[in-house]
Amino acid sequence: MDEYMLEINDLRRRIAKLKFERASVTIIEELEAQLRILKAIYDSAQALYADGEKDRRLQTSFGERELGSWTFDNVYFYVYEQAVAIEPDGHDLATLIWRHDYTAPLVGHLATK
Asked: Rounded to whole angstroms, how far apart are CA atoms 94 and 37?
């Protein structure tokens, strides 16, 4: 289990504890929103990493964009940076993160060469 899943699981346990203790609904809802966002980033990073393992073009573009070597940590950081730039405009941020196309900027970089 990597550090990202540890953080996600710690947050899950914290939420469960707060629910058991009947803590403020507002606090629980905020933490649940944070959990959904972290999970969306993690899931998106996993999906992009798996795609890159099958498609060397993604790895090549990643390196050419000076994002580092093709490691899960670097891919996670890339997805995280993309995700924090998303403007929710009243929509659920976690859903927008899951739906965001993280591949297009990498493949688009190759198309302009």
From this structure: 5
Contact 49, 79 (CB under 8 A): no
From residue 93, alpha-carbon distances to 2, 37, 73, 88, 100 in Å are 24, 7, 22, 5, 10
pTM over 0.70: yes
pLDDT of res. 112: 52
78 burial level (CB within 10 Å; 0-12, 13-18, 19+):
buried
CB count in 10 Å sphere of residue 106: 23
Radius of gyration of the chain (CA): 16
Distance CA 46, CA 109 (A): 21
Question: How does residue 108 score in pLDDT terms, banded at 50, 70 and 90?
Answer: confident
Span 45-70, average pLDDT: 94
